[in-house]
Amino acid sequence: MSRLLSKKRQLAGQSQTQLVTPVSANWQYVGFEAHQLNVGETVTLATEDDEVCAVILSGKANAKTQQASWHDIGDRMSVFDQKAPYAVYAPAQDEICIEALTDVEVAFCKAPGKGGHAAKLIRPEQCQYETRGVASNTRHVCNILFGNEPADSLLVCEVITPSGGWSSYPPHKHDTDAAPAETQLEETYYHKIDPPQGFAFQRVYTDDRSIDETMAVEDGDLVMVPEGYHPVGVPHGYQSYYLNVMAGPSRNWIFHNDPDHEWIIERDKKVTNG
């Protein structure tokens, strides 16, 4: 199995299904946890030196930090409802507690924090929801903690790719600290599949092919992208969701397309413009 792939794993009596740390990923910035809670269960995460964005992937919950609380948040029962999520942001040296009012899936997105922002609730109407691409490259993107909301280093968004489609495509990368041409950002992809018995494919590769991994990802799996290009393809009959977490030396997403495939962009522009 690829070192870039973390399979879903839930031990008896535990809610956690994914855990990636900078140590386990052998990088510097991004951490990630996913939990599945039954009605009435709670999970509490101390932020320590990180800022954390807890995304309510599905279900309804109460949430609180050390300074604030919010009740009955969550407006979708599936990530495929094509509704923006509720999320809770907490700075370093704080905590987030999630209490499940229904069955809940929650993701904790983590990156180094300076404590410069107050805890807050991010409501669906604060997210930026848009459809990009054409034909088999169409995807639906929702920015949760991106240009729409300030943070120290975290960038969080989610993407739905329809049946038989591609996303993060044409292949692009963001592994070089060379703004304004490109920025360096580590990234995780937390995958969900509809129906859940399906699978999708993700390739991660560099120009020199020192990394060249193609992975079959199933519902609840996670892919780590330390560097390189990282497109996703979805088989006919299934649709893909993934939650992206990015962080690096600066909070700025500037990507570089694989020059071998950049011609597709100009072709798609001609199709869109008639």
Automatic annotation (TrEMBL):
Transmembrane segments: none annotated. It comes from the Bacteria. One of its GO terms (molecular function) is glucuronate isomerase activity. InterPro entries: Deoxy-glucuronate_isom_IolB, KduI/IolB_isomerase, RmlC-like_jellyroll, RmlC_Cupin_sf. GO terms for biological process: inositol catabolic process. Keywords: Isomerase. Gene3D superfamilies: Jelly Rolls. This is 5-deoxy-glucuronate isomerase. It comes from Marinomonas posidonica (strain CECT 7376 / NCIMB 14433 / IVIA-Po-181).
